[in-house]
């Protein structure tokens, strides 16, 4: 399933933003196995966060929820590191993912 991605950075030019989005997208796709997995995993992650909060007690999650939660966090961390470097704090990056 194709998806749209937009990174927000007020200091970046359009060319810099496009290059960063390409890196971010590539890292997400690789971490989750294929671009078709990004939107479903992300949407499931958002449902988990809406139900249990940003930092849920993983013991309260089902095995499937725990897998999705940790899988998305790892993919997001990989995308942020690939795009902004290993010292980038997750809370600093703003992005939007949606259907293409």
Count of domain modules? 1
Number of strands: 2
Q: Give me the number of helical elements.
A: 3
Largest sheet: 2 strands, antiparallel
Q: Helical amount among residues, as a percent range?
A: 55-70%
Order of helices and strands: EHHHE
Shape: elongated
What separation lies between the terminal Cα atoms? 8 Å
Q: Summarize this, please?
A:
By secondary structure, the chain is an alpha+beta fold.
Question: Any overview of this molecule?
Answer:
With 100 residues, the protein is an alpha+beta fold. It has one domain (3-99). It is built from three helices and two strands. It has a two-stranded antiparallel ribbon with strand order 1-2. Helix 1 (14-32) crosses helix 2. The longest helix has 22 residues, at 63-84. The model has no long low-confidence stretch (mean pLDDT 90).
Notable characteristics:
single chain; 100 residues; alpha+beta; two-stranded antiparallel sheet; 3 helices; 2 strands; 59% helix; elongated
Chart the SSEs and their pairings.
Blueprint: E1 3-8, H1 14-32, H2 35-52, H3 63-84, E2 94-99
Antiparallel strand pairs: 1-2
Helix pairs in contact: 1-2, 1-3, 2-3
């Amino acid at each position: 399933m194709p998806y749209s991605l937009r990174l927000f950075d007020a200091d970046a030019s359009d060319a810099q933003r496009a290059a960063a989005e390409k890196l971010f997208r590539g890292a997400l796709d690789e971490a989750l196995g294929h671009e078709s997995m990004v939107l479903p995993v992300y949407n499931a992650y958002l449902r988990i966060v809406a139900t249990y909060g940003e930092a849920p007690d993983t013991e309260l999650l089902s095995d499937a929820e725990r897998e999705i939660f940790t899988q998305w966090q790892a993919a997001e961390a990989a995308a942020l590191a690939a795009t902004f470097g290993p010292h980038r704090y997750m809370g600093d990056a703003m992005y939007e993912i949606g259907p293409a």
